Amino acid sequence: MSQNENLYALLRGRFPADPDECCMELPDGSKISFADVDTGSGRMAGLLRNLGVEPGDRVLVQVDKSPEAVLLYLGCLRAGAVFLPLNSAYTAREVEYFIGDATPRLAVCRPGDQAAFEAMSAAGGGTRIETLGPAGDGSLMSLYARAPADDLLVARANDDLAAILYTSGTTGRSKGAMLSHGNLSSNALVLHEHWGFTPEDVLIHALPIFHVHGLFVALHCSLLNGTPMIFHTRFDADAVIDAMPRATVLMGVPTFYVRLLENPRFDRDATRNMRLFVAGSAPLLPETFAAFEARTGQRILERYGMTEAGMIVSNPLHGERLAGTVGYFLPGVTGRVADGDGNEVRRGEVGVLEIKGPNVFKGYWRMPEKTAEEFRADGHFITGDNATMAEDGRISIVGRAKDLVISGGYNVYPKEIELLIDVMPGVRESAVIGVPHPDFGEGVVAVVAVDEPAELDEAGVIDALSGSLAAFKRPKRVFFTRELPRNTMGKVQKNQLREQYAGTFGA
Ligand code: MLC
Ligand code: AMP
């Protein structure tokens, strides 16, 4: 290896000439410079090594969003560790699976979750547990405060793993997508160029940092650009509007844009300094796109991606941004809209999008068979998203071949919830579906087939799920029925249920 292909080396190489320039502006107005980020992530990397984390070891992290959590991510990259972030809404039952599957050397959790994590560690492989709180409190930062300065930057090759991000499977079992330094670096460089970042840009960072969108797309673009990001610990429409006069770019899920449009302060004047609004992670409704343009005079740039491949397709920066389409393959990405055998269908016809490129992941952690199933012999990855491609290559996502609900940008796999409902007393079977929701795009609904007399009511089902399922996955409504509709093959007709319950949230 001639040059260090560690993603952090690439990011650091783009830090500004004056290291005292601001990297992150925090909600209290304080600033963290690029020099602070570099020395802080170096010290964190040295600390991780001293805690026994070796290159290739997994570091599982379930914490609230904070600048310290960003340092922990960058420290992991520098130490050559594999960063494994978890949605902060997951319950202990959900986390237990990830600890067992990923066998991390170290797990970092919120101080309040320490006892639960310690218990999981004792039952499993003896993962070391440290804590990190939202105000930089907890055991990890007290060790950090005493740790010596360090400039550790472990040599990594493009194929070495940088992160594992779990995506739930249609079978109910989560799969860890293995992402390499090369996957992340190539995607970051392409997006930074493609979306036209300049030295004047300032990003509003209001996404969570446990998924591809906030952790990689937003963070990497801003770090590569060597300019400030205004760091919000959660999305709040008023706070984002307040930041806009000092900012130029916002990246968000469609719910961000729906909530901004609901805010009477959001208008052309509020956005006059902004040059780019990026949307993704879920379909942006054409109505939202149109209302946004009418209100601000700007067209949202919609792009499409997924955990396994980062960003794949994007509307153009210069050129037509069309509602209901996600644009063209990003430079370096190729693919096709294919039939069930991987043969390209005619332009305009619906098929499944299959892709290839340096952004495509290395496979699912410890699941070689599952990995093999999702790749074609010629190396194309089968996304599971239904799409069409126009004559000029413009792609529209028109549905999902996989049984998946996307609520506010979070994926919810019906199977996982159905398995829990099906074992409740009096339940014969259940079907979990997504139906239009005015705020979250899709809202989770459970349709439960019960014997008479019903032993369960709606609140009972939701309550019974609350100990084991993250709040965003829980059905927002539960309906009871005698029978679920089935086709002649005996398969539950979810399309019929989606139609029947389409009006549930009045969207
Ligand atoms: C919160 N709740 C949700 C929810 N988020 N319910 C369904 N879907 C969601 N997404 C629940 C809360 O637990 C709470 O439940 C209730 O809704 C009210 O919460 P809220 O205060 O309104 O929610 P808020 O905290 O404002 O969060 C909404 C949100 C957030 C949209 C800001 O969900 C968010 O940041 N989403 C971004 C997701 C994301 O980053 N996706 C990228 C994936 S990467 P209760 O019961 O406690 O009252 C990817 C690849 C790609 O997909 O292409 O980018
Ligand atoms: P995740 O597994 O969380 O990375 O979610 C990826 C999924 O989100 C994709 O497979 C798509 O189904 C969906 N997705 C992401 N961006 C878009 C978009 N712009 N339009 C429609 N669906 C999208």
Count the DSSP helices.
Answer: 15
Tell me the radius of gyration.
23 Å
Broad structural category? alpha/beta
Which ligands, by name, code or SMILES, are bound? malonyl-coenzyme A, adenosine monophosphate
End-to-end Cα distance: 55 Å
Strand content: 15-25%
Question: Helicity, in percent?
Answer: 25-40%
Can you list the strand order of the major beta sheet?
2-1-10-9-11-12-13-14-15
Briefly, what CATH class of the domain at 7-13 and 31-157? Alpha Beta
State the shape: globular
The CATH architecture of the domain at 7-13 and 31-157 is 3-Layer(aba) Sandwich
**Strand tally, please?**
24
Largest sheet: 9 strands, mixed
Which regions are unreliable across 5 or more consecutive residues at pLDDT < 50?
Answer: none
Average pLDDT for all residues: 96
Under CATH, the topology of the domain at 7-13 and 31-157 is which?
Rossmann fold
Topology:
Layout: H1 7-13, E1 22-25, E2 31-33, H2 34-50, E3 58-62, H3 67-79, E4 82-85, H4 92-102, E5 106-109, H5 114-123, E6 128-131, H6 139-146, E7 161-167, E8 175-180, H7 181-194, E9 203-205, H8 212-225, E10 229-231, H9 237-243, E11 249-252, H10 254-262, E12 276-279, H11 286-296, E13 301-306, E14 310-314, E15 328-329, E16 334-338, E17 351-356, H12 368-373, E18 381-389, E19 395-400, E20 405-407, E21 410-412, H13 414-422, E22 427-437, E23 441-450, H14 458-466, E24 477-481, H15 494-500
Parallel strand pairs: 1-10, 3-4, 3-5, 5-6, 9-10, 9-11, 11-12, 12-13, 23-24
Antiparallel strand pairs: 1-2, 7-8, 13-14, 14-15, 16-17, 17-18, 18-19, 20-21, 22-23
Helix pairs in contact: 2-3, 7-8, 10-11
The structure holds malonyl-coenzyme A and adenosine monophosphate (AMP).
